[in-house]
Design goal:
alpha+beta, three-stranded antiparallel sheet, 6 strands
Length: 263
Amino acid sequence: MKYTCPPRAIIEVNLAIQSVEDLIVAVRDDSSDWHPKEPKWFRGEPHVNTALTPTLYRGGFAPHENALLQMFRARASGFHETVPMREHTDQWLFLARHANLPTRLLDWSEGALIALHFALKECKPVVWMLNPLNLNDLSYTTPPLTPRPREFPLPWHGPGNPAFENLRGAWEQNSRGVPLPVAIYPTYVHPRLRGQRSCFTIHGTDVRGLDVLLPNNPILKRYVVDPARRQSMRSELAVLGITDSVVFPDIDGLANELKERFS
């Protein structure tokens, strides 16, 4: 499928990313003072004005969070070959998100080009870059008695763990949680998690977007892509091996890739 945009879709062109190389250079420059061996996470948004807010908090779903999760857990085994054990609530949340159920999880990828692939799906692309470990430093509400290791918290291990608290909030009527989102790695309960090199931030008690919670904070960067360059950049990504069948490693991804190739 070829994507077309109206002329007014061109925004911030003078400052926009014009090529895949532009994005790589910008990422390298903006993260030059970050630890070189620690991860950088990326998120592609197809609409430039979309806030960094999970789908649960868009469209009035938040009051029904627990009902959505409980009904999904009760019925999913009839629609999916393998499902987590009932008590593995973190894995159920990961599976629900990748089935597109509205949750408090916000999708990220370890791959900048994968995020760019998603951003280029629509007319006003933007890519975000996050320092996830620095976010987690801010998410702890109490100072440590000893220095914390630079590691990601396990969402199933608590108490005193902000990831665990935010996860419990999803299943306990938002009665638990810390104010800031927490960056976590998922269990790969779905092939798309693997293909997209998925990772998540999980929101807590403050439901505002991450961009609002971290205003002008250097751990979060935003890159606007010139909409006029979308098709050429999609071609660049295909040459670099980033296609629908890679990020959606199933028969649907293959079909979408072939449709685009021959359209």
